[in-house]
Specification:
The structure holds two protein chains of two kinds. Chain A contains ten helices and no strands. Chain A is mostly helical. In chain A, helix 1 packs across helix 5, helix 5 packs antiparallel against helix 8 and helix 7 runs antiparallel to helix 10. Chain B is an alpha/beta fold. In chain B, the strands form four sheets. Chain B has a five-stranded mixed sheet with strand order 2-1-3-12-4. In chain B, strands 10-5-11 form a three-stranded antiparallel sheet. Chain B has a two-stranded parallel sheet with strand order 6-9. In chain B, helix 2 runs antiparallel to helix 11. The longest helix of chain B is centred in the first third of the chain and has 12 residues. Chain B is globular. Classes of the chains: A mainly alpha, B alpha/beta.
């Protein structure tokens, strides 16, 4: 395998890890609010979060590029130029992986037994301890599988990342874009090898998510 | 898992090595790596990074914030537009080569290389680069017109490209593809059909020709490479039969570091010119 492949794969891992971790940190409070709170415009927010699921990647890529460009609102507000930069890829990945993470997180919270939380609170357990002792032990498989799913989605994304990132080796040339460049350069044998690695990797991730969900269900049905 | 994440975080922002980043038209896909090899043997320690695409797309990306040191375009138009926008280091715009087209045909068709081959009924698709943003695509269209294989449609009059400068031709308005402006009738005569397939850049166009259309108007510097010359035959039209491909390059504003300027000079050096010539480019002043 060419060294360029490993550079691109490592870059994909960096983008996917950072973005899915940010998704976990930012997404959990949002998913909690979506599961338990009532607020005006909730359906609207839910639709907006699901939007990247159905939006053509080029449309999303275009808007993100306009948003991040030198004349765009993001640059004017922050002075940061993120188009065709690593940071821009992480930002874009966070956006298009939202539905994958948030849906899984919300499901995990909705499966919580509300009585359990009530009981914990009435017994005078602090909020922090309710989270560490009751909520997290029950929902962590759901949070993990949502994060893994988002991770896999980011690892495989092509259209958005090509538009927002260009194809700068080591900075924005993620593995899917690297593969596209290989095919354009007529290096089919290398492209076939790289594809095989990605296929195995994607399968492994999906397998892991399924395994987690099964374990979780089985475990819940015995305890619940 | 946390160990992995920590490692990822630690390696997130690596120290920038001493390197030159070049964005280039895809017709340089094979010639530029060769130029870089020759340059780095003379200048060890300098790393040259190459990014390929269509000239028009790279131009757009450069105006949208893509960071690069040098830009090699397949046509002088884009470096000139960058200069007008004040994005170019003064005095660095230079002609490095003249591009040449090649009609490439799948060897298995057994056709005599030449434009006449396009009348063969087995060729139902022709791969060309997208004329909207790829200079080779525009040159391809003008080549076909010059040989009477395409006609301008009378209901959509456009200026005569042989008299007008490049930028006066409304390529960006070709949203309906070439056939919105040109009549493919002459090409189709006696044939069930003939359509264009557009590549995003000339290198992808080559891939399309190789993988499916079996015919394409490509760049000579790509066609002479073994990956295309072995499975195919080709015909090279005279350079005056299509829109000239005056290939220019620039150093981008604020990027005139010593190693960047050294690479800029190397392209115009006898050694650099010899390599470009070997890959099928015509050289300015020859």
């Amino acid at each position: 395998m060419e060294p360029g492949f490993w550079t691109a794969l490592l870059l994909s891992f960096k983008v996917a890890s950072l973005a899915s971790l940010l998704l976990l940190l930012l997404g959990v409070p949002v998913a909690w609010a979506l599961a338990f709170r009532r607020f005006p415009g909730k359906v609207l927010v839910e639709s907006l979060i699901l939007l990247p699921l159905v939006l053509p990647p080029t449309v999303l890529g275009f808007y993100l590029l306009v948003f991040l460009a030198p004349e765009g609102p993001f640059f004017r507000l922050t002075g940061l130029l993120w188009a065709f930069r690593f940071e821009g890829l992480v930002f874009a990945s966070l956006v298009f992986s939202l539905p994958f993470g948030l849906t899984a997180y919300r499901e995990a919270f909705l499966a919580l037994d509300p009585n359990l939380l009530e009981v914990a609170r009435t017994l005078g357990v602090s909020r922090v301890r309710v989270w560490t002792r009751v909520v997290l032990p029950l929902v962590w498989p759901g949070l993990l599988s949502g994060t893994l799913l988002a991770f896999a989605k980011i690892l495989g994304e092509f259209g958005v990342l090509l538009m927002v990132g260009g194809s700068i080796p080591g900075e924005t040339q993620v593995v899917s874009v690297y593969l596209y460049d290989l095919v354009q350069a007529l290096r089919f044998a290398e492209a076939a090898r790289a594809s095989l690695v990605l296929l195995s990797l994607s399968f492994l991730l999906v397998f892991l998510v399924r395994l987690l969900e099964r374990r979780w269900r089985a475990w819940r049905s015995t305890t619940g | 898992m946390w160990v992995i994440l920590t490692l990822v975080f630690l390696s997130l922002f690596p120290a920038q090595a001493q390197s030159v980043r070049v964005v280039a038209a895809s017709d340089l896909q094979y010639a530029l790596p060769e130029l870089v090899r020759a340059f780095t043997t003379q200048n060890p320690g300098v790393r040259v990074e190459l990014i390929f695409g269509s000239s028009g797309k790279l131009y757009t990306q450069l105006t949208q914030g893509l960071q690069a040191d040098l830009f090699f375009s397949a046509e002088d138009l884009y470096p000139r537009l960058l200069e007008e926008r004040g994005l170019v280091e003064p005095g660095t715009r230079g002609l490095y080569a003249l591009g040449r087209l090649a009609l490439w045909l799948d060897r298995r068709l057994g056709l005599q290389p030449g434009l006449e081959a396009l009348k063969d009924p087995r060729i139902t698709q022709l791969a060309i680069a997208n004329p909207v943003h790829a200079p080779y695509g525009r040159a391809a269209v003008t080549l076909l017109e010059r040989y009477g294989l395409l006609k301008r449609r009378e209901d959509t009059p456009i200026p005569d490209f042989t008299r007008l400068p490049w930028e006066a031709i409304p390529w960006e308005r070709l949203t309906g593809g070439v056939e919105a402006y040109w009549d493919a009738g002459p090409l189709r005569r006696g044939k069930p059909g003939f359509t264009f397939v557009y590549g995003e850049n000339i290198s992808q166009t080559a891939q399309m020709a190789l993988a499916s259309t079996r015919a394409g108007i490509l760049a000579l510097p790509l066609v002479v490479h073994e990956s295309l010359s072995r499975p195919g035959t080709y015909w090279v039209p005279p350079p005056e039969s299509h829109l000239p491909l005056r290939q220019s390059y620039v150093v981008l504003r604020g990027r005139a570091r010593p190693e960047v300027m050294a690479f800029h000079r190397f392209i115009g050096s006898p050694e650099g010119r010899a390599i470009l010539k070997r890959f099928g480019f015509l050289l300015p002043g020859e």
